[in-house]
Amino acid sequence: MRVPRPFPLGREGIYMLRPRLFSIRTVTESALICLVLIVSSRPTIAQSNGSNYILILASGFLCDLSDTTTCPATGKDASGNTFEMSGAGMFDAQSKSMKAAGTYIQKSPNGNALETGVWIASELVSFNSYGAVPGALPRQGMAIGSAAMGPRRMPMARASMPTGGLAVFRIQPLPLSGLPTMAVLQVNCALGDAPRERSLEGIRLTLERNHTQFSEEVSGRVMFLSMRPGGSTPAKHLQQEVAPETSEPPHN
């Protein structure tokens, strides 16, 4: 049997294969650090109104190495397949604008990985606030990065306030192999005056390509931080903290 010769790889082919050269850990750290830098470098938006929120999805200080239920955020479908996610971002509940990204992995009921990749948020559909909860943040600040990468801490924004709520996003999962798709992601933070039917914290996800619904919140911690008028995050300090980390070559 004659085996066809592969097509030579041009610049486009090398670019398409490049994501496979990096481990999922490297992609995760890069996505989260970039998102926090984006969020922390936009003080003018935070000063404009009180409808701006930071999204923390099963990452940073929400993760507890001694408690595997904190990260990642996991949803399950009727067949037992799971969809695990982590990420961070920022959105404006009034203008519906947002920037968010992270990583995901879809698994079969026996735990085998079916699909792995990164996701980006394209649209805020809605946000229903359950109210602010002062004192729900650790005093030492927000940690970004994992223990393996050397976590860095940034001071909390003075005007940020932990807030419960239900956010609905349109996201685009970008698999490391295969075609991208679209999905609707629900993120529920049960802080504040959460309704009884939304007392479980976590995510629900619907894939548009096959209408698969991961409608059972399995695990994962999520939080919204309300950026009140006049508040800003210390971008310069954060950039100094993460710069040495991002300059190192990725490790597989």
* Share of residues in strands: 35-45%
Number of helices: 4
The dominant shape is globular
Major pleated sheet: 6 strands, antiparallel, barrel
Q: Secondary-structure map with pairings?
A:
Layout: H1 11-17, H2 24-40, H3 43-48, E1 52-57, E2 73-76, E3 82-92, E4 98-107, E5 113-132, E6 142-144, E7 152-154, E8 160-175, E9 183-189, E10 202-207, E11 213-214, E12 216-219, E13 222-227, H4 235-246
Helix pairs in contact: 2-4
Please describe the structure with a list of short key phrases separated by commas or semicolons.
single chain, 252 residues, alpha+beta, six-stranded antiparallel β-barrel, two-stranded antiparallel ribbon, 4 helices, 17% helix, disordered N terminus, disordered C terminus
Question: What does it look like?
Answer:
The chain is α+β, with helices and mostly antiparallel strands. The protein has one domain. The protein has helices spanning 11-17, 24-40, 43-48, 235-246, and strands spanning 52-57, 73-76, 82-92, 98-107, 113-132, 142-144, 152-154, 160-175, 183-189, 202-207, 213-214, 216-219, 222-227. The strands form two sheets. A six-stranded antiparallel barrel has the order 1-3-4-5-8-13. Strands 6-7 form a two-stranded antiparallel ribbon. Helix 2 runs antiparallel to helix 4 (235-246). The longest helix has 17 residues, at 24-40. The two termini are 36 Å apart.
